[in-house]
Queue: 3 jobs
Job 1
Amino acid sequence: MGLPYSGCVARAKTLPALWLISDARNDAGLERALARLPRGSGLIYRHYHLDGPERLARFRALRRAAKARGHVVVLADSALTAREWGADGIYGAPRALWPRRADLLHLATAHDLAELGLAARLGADAALLSPVFPTRSHPGGATLGPVRFRLLARQSRLPVIALGGMSAPKARALKWPRWAAIDGLS
């Protein structure tokens, strides 16, 4: 079930509440994970471990599987590449999303209030605020924790997607409507 968001693309679509993020470690199970997600969820395709043609081929296969379930597909790359590959949007640090492209969904990464503000000023449609909980991606790294996450997210002018150690039980405990995961959905 998607929730409204504020960008130009919003007139035609809604921002998914649930996002699966691709990674080398969850690659083998991505098609199964996409099939299990509620219709209209989202996929953020990163696959930084693949180069050129191999990365594009894997993107196309996952985009087909995602679109068959009505999912939104966002690419961690440039707007030019997203358009060429047929992605619905781009994902990255706020400055990497600039200039704003009206035909693409823009999902910014953020780790604090300053980055949330920058993402809003640069026209992002939503921000993935992380890490909420400890993650396998950054073992031993500092986390926001539930209280700080909610404080920051509620101050944001953008819709916020919780990221970092997220799973369905943690999302319920966090009481936050939008979340993303690598391991927690794979």
Job 2
Amino acid sequence: MSDSSNKTIIATFETREAADLAVEHLVQHLGVERTDIFVRAAGRENSSGAGVSGGDAAAVNEDARDDARLGGEIEVSADVSADKTAALHRAFGDLGALRVTAK
């Protein structure tokens, strides 16, 4: 990000499933390049989210998986031009982000 008119928008999600959906929305609906989107655990510990979802959720007649590390939230960040920041803030909010910040 050498251009000072670019911003990094950071959203925090409770589940990996929600973070993955946000990434797909940014790429498919807002035209953000996948190479400009980053996903990581929000804290220092490795985590797949703070809550069970997606492949971790219980299937019919089965218990929920317990081998995924649920130690914290998932962070999705995107490097975008300044004119797209408002759209990303709205999209992340609409997609259930717990927090949205910019830097």
Job 3
Amino acid sequence: MLTLHHLEYSQSFRILWLLEALGADYALKSYDRNADDNLAPDEYKALSPLGTAPVVTDGDLVLCESNAIIDYILDSYPDSALRPAAGHKDRARHLFWFHASPGSLMSLQGIAMVLGLLEMRSPWPISSLLKAVFGQVRTIFLNPRSSALIDLMEKDLGKQPFFGGDNLTAADITLVYPMYAALDKGQFEGRTNILAWFARIEALDSFKSARAKDDRERIIFKF
């Protein structure tokens, strides 16, 4: 049986939601982060090939990386609407947003996080110089790219209710982690179509059941 090794406040919520949306038969093993450093416990890091969340086991198989896990699981559900088939009218849209999650949105968030950490932890006067350099990086690269991506999200969600098209797909599921991270930082203020998407997914029975099994007070994720 497939087992999801679920780390609290992490990307593994996406796999939990996927499994609930599929009505899959699976085992769930939850792990708490270390209280002192907020990292995954040693037991979890020893299990995962990269020491990161999410990770699933299926017999002798140990698999990490969210989108790889999503594709692996969906291979057992070839008729699922969560992955529109070739020729489906929403296939291209689904594929774009499915890959935009790690390829664009999370990459931009990761760069912003690293810049912020370097600014905070670098000693003066290096920190002063870094702030000036990183300010230019944000102005020239990060901010325009992020704004363009959010503009496209708002536009697409004005045409169809989900990132994957007319119905929920794995594109919405893989985006849930970076989308809530961006929401928590106030990046979607005034974006009515995007905010409506959050309300829409939170109303889904599969999302509610995943949240109940996640058993956390807030929908917030940590890098």
